[in-house]
Design brief:
single chain, mainly alpha, 6 helices, 0% strand, globular
Length: 169
């Protein structure tokens, strides 16, 4: 299915407005986020995602809407593990509770930007070179093998070069 450029542009504009609003209005004053507040904002973002399905239905029809909602549900399901990853990272790095909201927002923005870049790069490579699927598959297999062999090694985050660079900034 060919998605019109206006649909992509509207999605990017809506994301930029929502993230900008979150960053500039709600992220201004660092504070410890309560469970109720986190639940409320999660519901707001889920409702915005579902509301966008009505825009898709209007522009592209029921088939595209079903595909969007299926992807939306899968993405939400898969992103639950990110909560635990961020909790482990925040605890390991000793991020104070009042700064976790801002750190999380910047983490999400960074993840969205990197995901966008990798999807564009990966799809371009796959479209241009069909054999790249084997390269990507090999990367996944090697990564899986390394994860299986590494066991429960203790990793010292203080030795991470990225963390040292970020601490200087």
């Amino acid at each position: 299915m060919e998605v019109p450029m206006i649909a992509w542009l509207s999605l990017v504009v809506i994301l930029a407005v929502v993230l900008g609003f979150d960053l500039l209005v709600f992220g201004r004053r660092p504070h410890e986020v309560s469970f109720k507040e986190a639940l409320t904002w999660s519901a707001v973002y889920i409702c915005l995602g579902v509301a966008y399905s009505f825009v898709i239905e209007r522009w592209l029809g029921a088939q595209a809407t079903g595909e969007y909602l299926a992807g939306f549900v899968i993405e939400k399901s898969l992103s639950v593990d990110n909560i635990f990853v961020f909790a482990v990272i925040f605890t390991a790095l000793g991020v104070p509770a009042i700064y976790r909201q801002r750190a999380l927002l910047w983490g999400v923005i960074g993840a969205l930007v990197l995901r966008f870049i990798f999807i564009l790069l990966g799809s371009t490579l796959l479209e241009s070179f069909a054999w790249m699927i084997y390269v990507f598959g090999a990367i996944l297999l090697v990564t899986s093998w390394r994860l299986l062999r590494s066991g429960a090694e203790h990793v010292d985050p203080a030795g991470n070069p990225v963390l040292r660079l970020l601490k200087r900034i």
